[in-house]
Amino acid sequence: MVLMYQVFRNMQLMVLMYQVYQEHELMVLMYQVFRNMQLMVLMYQVFRNMQLMVLMYQVFRNMQLMVLMYQVFRNMQLMVLMYQVFRNMQLMVLMYQVFRNMQLMVLMYQVFRNMS
């Protein structure tokens, strides 16, 4: 009977050890799940950082576009200034022609005075 009781106790002990082993396996699985969750969080953070980099690149592109538009505007201002210079040159030419005509009128008046 004592031997049977010891066998029974040994069997109980083996069952307990098996349960401990099972719980240990469960803990290992839970730890692996936790690690996978950490990995997913890290991957999400990497994805967010990539999104941020894309946004920063878009901001940079928009800044480049604004610089180009400003350069176009400056070139338009320069064209307007050149047109104004051209207009002033035309005006100077007209004033010179008026001056020449006045000289011609003076000469004609002198000729008329000399003739009379």
Features:
116 residues; mainly alpha; 1 helix; rod-shaped
Account of the protein in words:
Helices cover 98% and strands 0% of the residues. The protein has one domain (1-87). It is built from one helix and no strands. The chain has 116 residues and is mostly helical.
Distance between the termini: 171 Å
Unreliable segments of 5+ consecutive residues: none
Strand residue content: under 5%
Structural class label = mainly alpha
In total, how many domains does the architecture comprise? 1
Radius of gyration: 50 Å
Order of helices and strands: H
**Overall strand count:** 0
Q: Please summarize the sheet with the most strands.
A: none
Helicity, as a percent range: over 70%
Question: What do the pLDDT scores average to?
Answer: 96
Determine the number of helices (DSSP H or I, runs of at least 4 residues). 1
Shape field: rod-shaped
